[in-house]
Amino acid sequence: MTSITLRNVGVDFPIYNARGRSLKANVLRRVGGHIDSHDGEIVTVEALRDINLELRSGDRLGLVGHNGAGKSTLLRVLAGAYEPSRGVAQINGTVSSLLDMTMGMDPELTGRENITLRGIFLGMTFQEIAELTPAVEEFTELGGFLELPMRTYSTGMTLRLAFAVSTAVQPDILLLDEMISVGDANFADKAESRMEQVMENSSILVLASHDPAMLKRYCNKAVLMNGGQIVAAGSLGDILEQHSGTESVA
Amino acid sequence: MASIKQTVSAPIVAQAKDETANGPGLSRRAWIDIIQGFQSWRVWWLLGIGDIRQRYRRSRLGQFWITLSVAIFIAAIGTVYSALFKQPIEKYIPYLATTYITWTLISGIIIDSTSAFIQAEGFLRQQALPKSTFILRILVRNFVSFGHNIVVLPVIFLIFGVSPAWTWFAALGGLVLIAVVGFLGGLVCAILCTRFRDLPQIIQNFVQVAFFVSPVAWQVDLLDESVRHWVIINPFAAFLQMVSEPLLGRLPGAITYTSAAATIGVSALIAWVLFRRFRQRIVYWL
Q1: What's the pLDDT score for residue A24?
Q2: How close is the nearest chain A Cα to the Cα of B228, in Å?
Q3: What residue ranges are annotated as transmembrane (chain B) (predicted)?
C-alpha cells in the first residue's frame, strides 16, 4: 500500500564556514581557547520544522509557498534523499523524483549508453532496459544522434532524452518541482500527454508549483508552506486564496 | 510502460535520532544501507567502469595509458634503483613491478575515497541511494585500473625468468583482503573527508609519505636485522606483501596475515561506529 507519513519532521542544515569545516578550527577550538566563541558555534539553518503530513493512495498534493519556504527540501525528504534531523518519515512505495531528470547522465557517453545509465538509477535491470530502449528511442525522435556522445546534443535534445527515460517507468509516488515542459511545440504536446499519463497512474502525486493554473489542473489538496513550516493545509481553493492573501500583504 | 522493480525493496523509513529512535534503529539502517549497497551492483559497476572510460575517452590509447605509464615507471625507477641499491636487475625489477602495482591499487583506493561522497553530491541529494554504493564504485574503478596494470607482469616475468608458482593463488587471497580493507577504510576516509574538507589534502600527503616508508621501492631484506621487525607495524607493508610476495613465489609469514587481520578488525570497528552515527548526516555535509 502506497503511503507517506511524516511526523514532526525537522531538517537542520549545519553551515560550516571555511573555518568551521576545517580540521584546524576543530583542533584549535579544543586547545586554543582564545578564539571568539562565535567561531566555535556551528550555524544551523532550520529548513523544515514540525512537518506533519499524511498522504494516501489517490492524493494529489500541491505545495504552495514563496521561494525559500521549504518546498524543495520537503520534496527531497519525500524522495528519501534527506533523512530528517528530527521526527519520523515513512515512505512506502517506489518513488520517482523528477527533480533533476538528467541526474546520472554523462555527456561523454552516447545517447543509448545514457539510457542504460539512467535506467539503472531508476531501478531497472539490464534486461528491462534492453526491452524498454526501442520505445524510449522512438519517443525521443533523436534517430542517429543516439549513437553520438551526449555532449554533441543541444540542451533541448538532452532534455528530450532525459524525459523519455525518466518517464518510461511508472512509480507509485511521483514528485515534481514545477511542471516539466520539454522541447519544441510538437514534442511538448507529446511530452505533456506522457507526463499526464504517468501522473494519473501514480498513486500519490506531490507537485510544487508557483502556477495556480497548474495546481488546479492536477491537484486535489494543498499545503501552504512558509519559513519551513506548513502553515495551512486543506482544499486547493482555500490554500491558493490564503497564499495570494499573504502575497498582497507582502 | 514498465513498472519499477526496485532493487531496494524495503520501504524507506527515515527516523531521526530522538526519544522515539534509539541505538538499534541507527544500527539497523546502517546495516540495510550496506546490504542495499551491495545489491545495487549495477549502479556501482556502471559508475566505476564509466569513471575509467571517461578519464581516457577521446585518447588514442584509451585506458591502456594506465598500463603504459606503469610500465615506464617500472622501467625507469627499476633501472636506477637497482644500481642505487646495488641489486641485480633481474631480481629487482620483478620485485618493484609486483609491489608498485599493488601499491598503486592501495593508494588509489585511499585517495579516491576522499572524494567518494563529494563527487556523488548530485546523486545523493536527489534520490534515496545507499551511501555504501559510492565506496564500492571506488573499488571497481581501482580494481579495473589494477587489471590494466597487471598486464605488464607477465611480460616482466618472461624477460627476467620468473616462473609461475602455486603461490599465485595466495596473491588472489591478498587482493580479496585489500578489497575488504579498502571498503572499510574507504568508508572511514569518505565520511571524514566529507565533513572536514582539509582532510583530502592531509591524506594525499600521508599517502605520499607512506610510499617511501613502505617496502615498495626498497626491500625489507636490505634493512638491518635489528630494525626489520618495525616494518610489521606498518599495515601498508602487510597488504603489499600479501600480494607481491606470492607473485614472486614466496609465501608471506603468519605475522603478515596477523597484521592484516588486525588492520581489518580495527578499520571495521571505526567504520561501523562512524557510519552508524553519521550515515544520515553525510548528505547534509555535501
Answers
A1: 62
A2: 35
A3: 64-85, 97-118, 139-160, 166-190, 202-220, 254-275
